[in-house]
Amino acid sequence: MAERLNSDILYDFSEKRNLISHCRMSIFGSLGFAQEDLCHKPLIGIVNSFTDINPGHMHLDKLAEAVKEGILQAGGAAVQFNTPAPCDATSCGLEPMKYILPQRDLIADSIEMMVRCNSFDGLVFLSSCDKIVPGQLMAAARLNLPAIFVTGGPSLPAMFFATKDKASQQDPTEQFIATGNPDLIPTIYGCHGGGAGACSGFGTANTMQAMAEALGLTLPGCSTVLAVDPEKTRYARASGRRIVQMVHEQLTPEKILTKETFENAICVHTAMAGSTNAVIHLCAIAHELGIDIGVSDFERLGKGLPCVCGVVPSGHHSHLDLHRAGGIPALEKRIADYLHKATLTVSGSSLADILDKAKICDEEVIRPLNNPFYEGGGLAILRGNLAPDSAVIKASAVNPEMRLHTGPAKVFNSEVEARVGINEGKIEHGDVIVIRYEGPKGGPGMREMLMITKYLVYSGKADDVALVTDGRFSGFTAGPAVGHVCPEAADGGPIALVEDGDIITIDIVNRTLTLHVSDEVLAERKKNWVPLKRELSGYLKRYSETVTAAAEGAWLK
Predict the structure, then answer these.
(1) With helix as H, strand as E and coil as C, how does 12-38 read?
(2) Closest to 433 measured CA to CA, from 407, 395, 460
(3) Which of 182, 265, 342, 448 is most buried (most C-beta within 10 Å)?
(4) Do 244 and 387 lie in a common domain?
(5) Which of 257, 277, 297 represents a domain boundary (last residue)?
(6) What is the pLDDT of residues 382-409, one digit of tens each?
(7) What sign does the CA torsion over 202, 208, 210, 215 have?
(8) pTM, entire model
């Protein structure tokens, strides 16, 4: 019996479907397809997030052409559609940042709509940045068609991060803030911009590209190949060929994305000190498959597993250094004893097969387990009476002297209020800044607080001032910045009850976040608590009404 494809409906001219097939064929004819271009060939949807307003995605149109070539070489047919791809950096510190996390679920929904309305046999996903990659991963898991990812790759290291001795260069932004010298503005443009690709380092963009590979959904080694490297084009073409084979094999995401696969990804994330945002994203992707992954899994799997990869901001290496050291397969080889090696990947090979071929080419970039960058792992999950359900911090990016910190609270009800407070000199050395009502529901949208941490750097208080919030942080955030506090303020969590002057202790070693206020006093404050209400409309209103807690993955009900 001949293989049955979803796209066979295009040329099923039986009496029952005659009219429908004629109509569908006429549409494809208008697109320039002849019958022989489609007949009994796997129809592959190329899901592209190309846009020329986001450097992480501005090269994906060219990669899509290479993917299409590969599909045609393998005997398939290809059509392309696009998804949104706003850049976090252009929204940072502004009201539009409220839309950045919500776009993830909107992207997943939009892909579902396009795929369900068409007869695709398989999908190739192209994306690079923070919420776009996880949005596409959620869609792939939800749709369960044969799927492969071509990550856009990191950019060339920006000048500031290009030397191994980061201290040898001063960030020109810091110089500009300190001096106000307008001559530094061109330097800022040239220093921080690495051209096409995601920001070089383990921000959320490259973290989630690495997670796509760790989940087995890219060809081995794909995620760390630079956007401008011709090797990326070769990966794109090879992925196009491979998706056609995957359709014939019926290799779907549910066969790849198992509980064990997610546990592998969490271990890789811990060892590389990836972005804290990966916690909510991996939880949300697993939810699409009905797999129970939560912050407790990050706690459990992170115990005893050190951070062995010191890419910015946890170390001084760039993503280019990591790629030259062997990329994600080499990192996985280093922590092989912690991984489930029988898991399957889109290559058709098991993780064990990939590890057999992997080589660690630089032991300074990917260190031995007995000589790590940080023994405690990249991520720490904190709990306590200030965060009963959990909070998250990138432990590897905190100076040793701030891994235990106690100080008085300075409370703000929004990121904007906190920024004004810092500029007005309201923050003193030793303080703990508390920013609340910035959670998924209360923000809404769970904004990143990167600008706040930068303001602390520029004000000279980054070394001894901590930050606690129910919002998020950029993957590039360093220092004692605790995010994802749950329950959030909008849900009446303890963070809503903190007052100026309350003493807070952040203890990363013991994984605790403590508000030194008695239960009785907190109970009394709760009686008088009035939730902060924001005037909402449109998508943010719908999002606020349906989003789950950060500890669950902030997915929509």
Answers:
(1) CCCCCCHHHHHHHHHHHHHCCCCHHHH
(2) 407
(3) 448
(4) no
(5) 257
(6) 999 999 999 999 998 888 999 999 999 9
(7) positive
(8) 0.92
